[in-house]
Structure formats: C-alpha cells, structure tokens
Write a structure and sequence with these properties.
Length: 93
Amino acid sequence: MKAGSTVESGIHLRWDRLQEFMGELSLLSVEGQARQLEMRPLNLHRAKHDNRVGDRTIVEIMAGTAAIARRRRAKAPKFEDLFEIRLPARPES
C-alpha cells in the first residue's frame, strides 16, 4: 500500500506476527522464508508489501506455518493470529 493512501478493506497479513512465529527463520530473506513456508516467493513478497492477501496466499501461509510447527513439534498459529479482516468504513450520514 502506498504512503498516504486509505486503508483498503479485505484480509490483511499481520507481517509482524508472521515474523514472530518464524523466529530464527525471520532472519532469512523473503525468498528464503517462502521456501520454508513451501510457497511461491512472489506471493509472500506481495503479502509483505501490499499487506492485502488473497485466498491462495492465505492457504499457502496457513499450510506453511502448519508444516513448520509440525517440524518444531509446536502449536501452529490460528488464522486470527496471522491475519486481520478490515471492513470498509461506513459513510457518515
């Protein structure tokens, strides 16, 4: 999203929460993190910079974090831990 633009409605990735979950893997580049999440680097790059995500990216991130959690024998994050749903602002009447 560009500076000064209005907040778009939709589902947004909480990048800070994803990085918190990734732990030491957050030190990797976006491409390296995408490999760990078993997803396309372009999708993760767009999610990081645009902050707004589509269905496919959500599924890839949730599946990737679940795979990492299994390898760590840890609890996988829930949808609401990693994503935020923003509704359009209601017009003033």
